[in-house]
Design goal:
two-stranded antiparallel ribbon, 8 helices, globular, mainly alpha
Amino acid sequence: MEQTTSARGSKGRPQVNNYSPDISPLVQFRSGTKASELISRVGKLRIKSFGLWNPEEEFQDHESGQLSHPYDKILAIGKRPTWEIENILPGFDPDELDCPIGVGVDIHESGDLSGAIRHMKGLLKQDARCLDAYAHLGNWHFEYDEPQELKSLGNQIDDVFPWGLIDNRPFFRNLHGLGLCFYRQNFVPLTANQAR
């Protein structure tokens, strides 16, 4: 069963529209790799628009001239689109206290790493778009093993995916893990201009 929002999802928030742009070019994998084959087999995650994000409302003291780098640059870009990413939780029952991800975290915290890994992989077998399962598996792998070869992160975007829209958080946990891998391997990703 596919779950498109978490129990703490976006009910009651003003939804501007359901435009679902293709953001797949943002992360690219070499053809023929397991990752590229997986991406081609699974469906895309939807993103919901929440209108324009206004940095002047976010940074109240901007008029005092006290904003330092990088906030000055964020303010200079001005208003931009705000999005929330679909959060897939396979087997989630809103009447249950625990979500499937929380169950896996509890298994890990009890000291059963292999059981926690089996649980998260089981969620991914149900729906390979479960971002939180990848995030936790990646964190555990990062904690116990050296990360393997990195893939390339694509073009920069200026749109906003706020932490306050909680269905964005699995994506951010994955992005954080990618950053930790870059840091561990002293990897500096090329900007779009440098890659040309």
